[in-house]
Design brief:
Blueprint: H1 2-6, H2 57-63, H3 70-76, H4 97-101, H5 114-146, E1 151-154, E2 159-162, E3 168-170, E4 180-184, E5 188-195, H6 203-219, E6 223-234, E7 237-247, E8 256-264, E9 270-277, H7 282-293
Antiparallel strand pairs: 1-2, 3-4, 4-5, 5-9, 6-7, 7-8, 8-9
Length: 296
């Protein structure tokens, strides 16, 4: 009896042979026991005292003691070894069921930066302001163009004349003898007054006398040059006009321009028109001449 317990079990002795009359031994020399009964073996409990999983006798009879065959393991859909987290997940595992039917959710667009929104709002406000200002300017200019020109009616001098753009009717002192006046700022002026009776043949000589008088009173030029002297007919009334240009030797005063026009009147009198421009500019010359020749 003591020999059986002290005998080496592993590795088995080569000279030992199973005793006669017993079942064949298991692998590695373990004596074989009685044939296995039909009752399924009882599985050992888990190492931490967990509850044993319930086993299906039919499955155990098919799989045996060492698990399912390799063909059945591949059909179970579970990996043979635990996952280490290195495998790439399938695309469908990360998607909800609704995304599998329709499509994957799209990444929301990136919000616009705050500074860009402020820049766009400021640019839009600037464009709107410029549009409003432009509309106002165009409206004012259209109104100015559509407004009828100003006409000065001088009953005492017996003449009416239309003012060019930017000209305004003015007031003259009675001591000058002129009864009406118009000006464009401080650069050009036209005045009218009644004159003495003058016969048409004497119009030129009368205009020369008036031109010399006003040159001495108003221009005081160091050098005076006559640039125009001719007969005219204004509104069916015979007349004569004369223009001079005065220059100065000092460097302060710029050249000045003066035009004198004398027109006859139906009642036997005359009308004197005097125009002055300082400094002498082509625009001022043209506006003064157009005002006088357009009188009626």
């Amino acid at each position: 009896m003591d020999d059986q317990w002290t005998r080496r079990v592993w590795p088995p002795a080569e000279e030992e042979s199973p005793p006669s009359g017993q079942a064949p031994s298991r692998p590695y020399g373990v004596p074989g026991g009685p044939p296995r009964s039909s009752t399924p073996p009882r599985w050992p409990t888990r190492p931490y005292g967990g509850r044993e999983p319930e086993r299906n006798p039919t499955e155990e009879s098919l799989t045996g003691l060492y698990g399912a065959p390799v063909a059945e393991r591949s059909q179970s859909g579970r990996p043979a070894w635990p996952s280490l987290g290195l495998e790439s997940p399938e695309p469908e595992d990360d998607l909800p069921p609704s995304a599998r039917r329709y499509r994957a959710p799209e990444t929301p667009p990136r919000p616009m930066p705050r500074w860009l929104r402020r820049l766009l709002v400021g640019g839009l406000a600037l464009v709107c302001s410029a549009a409003v200002i432009g509309a106002v300017v165009v409206t004012v200019l259209n109104r100015a163009e559509s407004a009828p020109p100003t006409v000065v009616h001088d009953q005492i001098a017996g003449v009416s004349y239309t003012l060019p753009p930017e000209w305004r009717e003015g007031v003259v002192a009675p001591v000058t003898g002129f009864t009406s006046a118009a000006a464009r700022g401080d650069s050009a002026t036209v005045m009218a007054r009644p004159g003495d009776r003058v016969d048409p043949p004497n119009l030129r000589s009368a205009v020369i006398d008036l031109s010399d008088l006003y040159t001495q009173l108003l221009l005081h030029g160091d050098k005076v040059e006559v640039i125009d002297d001719r007969a005219v007919t204004v509104g069916g009334r015979p007349g004569h006009t004369r223009a001079v240009r005065a220059e100065y030797t000092d460097v302060v005063n710029e050249p000045a321009f003066m035009r004198v026009t004398l027109l006859t009147r139906p009642d036997g009198g005359s009308t004197v028109l005097l125009g002055l421009a300082h400094p002498d500019r082509p625009q001022s010359r043209a506006e003064i001449e157009g005002l006088m020749l357009g009188a009626r």
